[in-house]
Amino acid sequence: MPRTDHRGGTVDPTRFRTLLGRFASGVTVITYPGPDGVRGLTVNAFASVSLRPPLVLVSVDRASRAGRALGAVPFTVNILAAGQRDLAVHFAGGRRLSEVAWRGDGGGRRLAGCLAYVDCEPWSRHDGGDHVLVLGLVTGTAIGTGAPLLFYQGGFTAIADFPTEDHDRHP
To answer: Where is the Flavin reductase like domain positioned along the sequence (predicted)?
Structure first.
C-alpha cells in the first residue's frame, strides 16, 4: 500500500525497493569496536562527502546495534573484493563463517583481502528516517587492487571483464 511522505507524495515501498535495486553499488563491511570485541555489518550505502576535510557517509538501520553505536566510536569501511561474497553474507547476518581473517593494521578493524580501507573517527550523525546517516572523518586509508564485489537487484555480482591492473586515471 502506498504511503504518504511528509511532503504529501505517495510512494509504494515495494516498488521503491525494486527501483533502488536497479542501482548497482559496491559492498562494504563496516567494522567498529563493541563491548565483546570487533563487530561488523554489511553496508552498500556508502559515499564520499568531502575532500577537505576528508569525510565519508554510511547509512545504517537505526534499530541495529551498529545504528546505536556508530557516531560514538571509530569505525572502518572495508571495501570488499569480488571474491568476498561469503564475508558479505557473514556480516549481513547470513551463513556464519567459522573464522574471519583480519589485517594487522588499522586498529584491528581491517578485514584481510579487501580492495580498500577507510579508517574513520565519528564526525556527525543525522536522521535518515528508519536509518541513521553517519559521517566519518577519514584518519587512515589503504588501497589494494582487483575487482569489486557489487550488489545489484538483491544479489551479489562482479564486473565482467574487469581489468586486473589499475586502469587509466583521469587528471
So the answer is: 20-158
